[in-house]
Amino acid sequence: MKFIRAVSPIDGALLGEFAVSSSESIRQQMQVARDAADSWAKVSVKSRAVILGKLTPLLLAELDSICYLIVKSTGKVRTEALLGELYPILDLARFYQKHADSILRRQGVVTSPFAFPGATASIERRPYGVVAIVSPWNYPFQLTMAPLLTALYAGNAAIFKTSELSLPISQLIADLFGQLDLPPNLVQSVVGEGAMGAELIDAGPDLLFFTGGLTTGRAVMQRAAQHPIPVLLELGGKDPMLVFADADLQRAADAALYGGFCNSGQACISVERLYVQQSCFDEFLAQLQQGVAKLQVGHGEHGDLGAMVSDRQFEIVKAHYDDAIAQGAQASGPLERAGNYVKPVLLWHVNHGMRVMREETFGPLLPVMAFDDEQQALQLANDSDLGLNASIWSNDITKAERLTARLQVGNWVINDVLKNVGHPGLPFGGVKKSGFGRYHGAEGLRQFSYPVSGLTSRSHLPKEPNWFPYSEQRYRHFTGYIDFVYGSGSLLQRIKRNWPALEAFKEYSAFDLSQRWQNLKLLLSWKRDY
To answer: Which fold has domain 239-422?
Structure first.
């Protein structure tokens, strides 16, 4: 049996050894997950909320120990582990507990009394069955727990795979759900390196939720298409921050430092492109330089930035830094590394020909570029293959809100940074090459289920108007009916010119003269709703 050794990026300490899942074991897990999914789907959403609601007290009771494990496993500082990993899950869990039932309940649909006499229509949500979740190393607790909770509230079973760099977190999550009163095998995990994701897909889940980079996302989508399996992809970002001269510049500078360097820049929603209006550029850059010089790296009492997770990611950061310097960029300092700790660096005199302005860096580099006016700011912000999140900074809220309508992103925030993504009621996801699909909020919960539409007829007619036999005269009657419903002119005009067609349908009780005016009133009400 093969094992993976988990070590801390902080000091290389051994955190455990984890047995790698085999292809056969994954197939067996998928089989028993289907049985669990069938059982769980029969549980009402309200009852699911009662069971899953007991997760919150578990998290609160073990809050410090959970944060400690996240710190050791990811290299984050403790406050980042608390606010970036644990708090969003508490908020999302509360949102689902309160609102999942109303979001997922059967929805009635307005029905035309003429086209569908005596009928009612509705849409219900059904769980897919087994959801496979593949999560990344940068926020392994939050980015596994959020889709996992969503899948469970929607009535699915779930099999999840965290990054091989985050296996202690995988074990933690499995242990937490093991303490809830869930059907056996409803929540399971698999262990392996990146290639193990393909094994999980080949085992045949009913829905796949993937969070990670664009290159791997393409491979995941190709693999899923072979079966085919529907996928939700949350991929990378190259998020812009636009600072106008009328903004609160000190607040914006503090936000830029946080947005660019939280978790050492290892977040898909990090500020990776900072655009500042030319008229305040020098002043703003000076504020950034003063601020970055005060940031503390390490796990001391006042640590702001923790360790980077891997050598591979540092090499990408270094390549972007070297490329920018070679093309004439200036930096707040050299790219210094001590173990896995990397000092944050500002870059300016940058342009869109540099890798740091085009490719996802995912590290503690913050490039700053000037713009002249609104039009140029939007052009620069949208000049990217990625479109995840963005922020606009201005005291003119009307202007800022007007500009958001032209941003090519899935999410935006005005006069704040990153925080919008943590709002449990807002769906989160990207456009362009940042992926597709959403989670969080009502829309996110619905995406872990599929709609089934139904129509119930309560008609007592011997037959419906559209049934056989057909004739040329019948065709003319139907064209008259269509003109009566959708044609131009007043109601009286439409009745007058189509009276022969209306008379032809009097054999059907829904069109009987004694009921006609009531049906006309219903029709008018129906047309108003549309």
So the answer is: Aldehyde Dehydrogenase; Chain A, domain 2 (3.40.309)
